[in-house]
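Honest question from a wet-lab person: if I give you the sequences of every part of a complex, can you actually get the arrangement of the whole thing, not just the pieces? Trying it with mine:
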Amino acid sequence: MELISGNEAIARGAWEAGASIGVAYPGTPSTETMENFAKMPGVYAEWCPNEKVAVEVGLGASAAGKRVLSTMKHVGVNVAADPLFTAAYTGVGGGFVVLAADDPGMHSSQNEQDSRYYAMAAHIPMLDPADSAEALAFTKEAFVISERFDIPVFIRSTVRVSHTKCAVETGERVETAPVPYEKNQPKWVMMPLYAKPRRLDLDERIERLRAYAETCPFNRVERRGDAVGVICTGATYQHVVEALPEASVLKLGMSWPLPAQTIADFAASVDEVYVVEEASVYLSDQVKALGVKLSQPARPLSPAGELTPQAIACAFGADEAPHADTPANLPPRPPALCPGCPHRLVFRELARMKAIVTGDIGCYTLGALAPLSAVDTCVDMGASISMAHGFELGLEGEKHRPVVAVIGDSTFAHSGITSLLNTVYNCGTGTVCILDNRTTAMTGHQGNPVNGITLQHRPSRELDLPALVRALGVDDVRTVDPMDMKAVRAALKEAASNDELSVIVFESPCVLLTKERNAPYEVKSDCRACGTCSLIGCPAISCDPETKVAFIDASLCVGCSQCSQACPYGCIVSTGGSHA
Amino acid sequence: MPSNATTVLLCGVGGQGALLAADILARCAMACGQDVKLSEIHGMAQRGGAVTTVVRLGEKVSSMVADQGCVDYLVSFETTEALRNISYLREGGVAIVSDESIKPLPVLTGKLAMPKGARKQLAAHQAQVIPAELLAKQAGSVKAVNVVLLGALSTYLPYPKDVWLRVIEERVPAKFKDVNITAFESARAWAERNAAKEA
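Yes, you can. This is the full assembly:
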């Protein structure tokens, strides 16, 4: 038995099934799946710039005959939706399995969408494991289903499946022979001529999948009592069996298509039947649409956020376990840009100049939090640049604060390039800051097309960002060291006063990558207690609550000098002599 | 939600080593024939934010999350985080808390204050406040705080000491093996002395 997470189990299941190609863009809670798959013997795996590209690469490799795993977080499925919807029409060559990792509770995401809706909307069958053992078994079977029904298959996980470790019996890899590629235009050329008959073929495949769902061993009834029956999928099942030990349970391992007859039979076998699900009404709506009359718990569950056993038990009438109250007035502990993060001063300067800052996904979202409080918006990958253009359009003709987009290097490669192209094409204005830290930092320092580090460490090339931006048609492109406060201030001021589109590439690697440490800084005794240094939001700097005198924690300080530059009175100095 | 499984909630600040502690605990339980689930949250919280990890142990474990009033052992790497999670402790549950306090950013910038009388509040919950950093330093590395907390926790759990030592040896980097064994032993001795004092 091995103690492995759901993500590791999915990677292992794909490998045991003979998958030989993996394609992904990192995103919590999916990331470790492809990182683990990439370490398996005999496989090729790559990070792609985004999920759409990953699915298209995967579909090509599948068409060519190989078994392929593609992984992404739930919002990545939005990006990949375009090829996925049509991949249901084309079907596959070798088995093609796509992980959609949902984040109910939004531990590390901007929304809590339910990927089961995608399965239904795209006509892609979906398996919904409840723990690591199922994640492994379901992934293996997903490849069989994919080839048998000529269709991509979703594995859906949630954060509590992906990031929960439990004991799993692993197996051996079984190599599968590639499905030989033969030119087949009616299958692979989705123009109306071929797509129309292929649509009818898809409907026929789905009908066969509906029949399969009735016999699929992953849909099972656990019979306990006749009074209460609960229908559920995924991690929610684990909470239900603990919360309602008397209830019979229909555990659906296949969350689309649903087994209509199995559900009707189960509903008829109990006095009251309920659906319990997390952050969504997908399943209850689908079961109701089958004509099943659902009962409502005494106290309806919240449609938002994660479920727990107690939340379910209380909905069904149990009392909450007695517990102490959380003490009032506890200070929150939000995440923060790391001590020494080289891009901190950009946010400080943007806050100082009171810019309208359209932000993006990744570490730099943290520039929204106090005391930096610099960021006005954060929506999705690449939105910083396109929303900045939209702000400029919306404020056209009005006197307004400068509009500045802030985006990281990996996010720019993911979805920022087309946004910038649009601004150039439509003669937009404003300032775009690309904070190039040479990595995909927030998800754990993955390689990307900018740093040129590939998933399996094959030699590649770094991207020349300023040259790319120039090639897109931006005339005003400058490269600035974000650790130099005067240069940051001057560049932003100049760019903001320019009537044309300006792009500033701030180049400095993530502090966690370089591991460079200089002598820590200290506050001299003549500190004037003005509080300016604390505005850069460095976790190593504190202000005395009474005197407001600054203090630097030498154990956290990495000697980056940014606070020293921010101090208007020269009161912060290096303990190691002159600073770099 | 009362359950047959034992629930351990580990909490602290990103980067303190709670994940390794949870991993060692889970493997001890597995080595003793128990079912186990270990649930952790990655991502945003890693950048210095508050983190929690749940380990559930027993004959058969279903859910992987902890509910308020249902945690048997609250193991905290930091006093404010112990208070933040105190509502999870069940009546009669045990809190083991490192005596370290780490100021979050809103306190560092002077906007908010640390809770007053944290020790007193923890004492009201009969928390075992352990000088974990001191014991870790004495053992040879401040990084061994996680194993110190495990040492204290181990005195409440039914797993034989040799199983703990074996799993620690397997899971910590080879060059820190001795440091961690010393840290574990000294924390057990501290917990036993403390228990004797209370009795």
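Two things worth pointing out. The helical segments of chain B are 18-31, 79-84, 105-108, 118-124, 132-139, 145-154, 161-171, 177-198. Chain B touches chain A through 60 residues (CB under 8 Å).
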